[in-house]
Design brief:
Elements: H1 2-78, H2 81-99, H3 103-122
Helix pairs in contact: 1-3, 2-3
Length: about 120
């Protein structure tokens, strides 16, 4: 009878040991997975930060290039015969308004100068 009692206690002991080991292994695996996920997330954040810096650099360079192209186009348009004729009309109407300030000369000088500036800025 003692032998049966001893074996039952031993069985409970091994059963408890089995559950403790199972719980420890499971907890260790979960903790390992959690740490792995956090490390991957950190790596992704670092990669995103690096991509943001690179994207900003590229966008800034594109803006500078676009501004330079726009300025070059404006300069080229301002030298064209069409722009020079528009500028001459602006100057003529402005001079006329200074000599004879009327509602018409004021509006027409403003209109002609606006047409010139819009053409130089936009090409339209």
């Amino acid at each position: 009878m003692k032998y049966g009692h001893f074996s039952t206690v031993k069985t409970y002991h091994f059963l408890a040991l089995f559950f403790v080991i199972t719980l420890a292994v499971t907890s260790g695996n979960l903790l390992s997975n959690y740490i792995s996920v956090r490390l991957v997330a950190y790596g992704v954040q670092q990669a995103n930060a690096a991509m943001d810096v690179e994207r900003k650099r590229i966008v800034d360079k594109m803006k500078v290039d676009l501004d330079q192209k726009h300025e070059a186009a404006k300069k080229q348009r301002s030298r064209s015969k069409k722009a020079q004729a528009m500028w001459r009309s602006c100057l003529d109407w402005t001079a006329m308004h200074q000599q004879k300030p009327t509602y018409t000369t004021e509006k027409e000088s403003k209109k002609q100068c606006d047409i010139y500036h819009r053409y130089v800025d936009t090409g339209v």
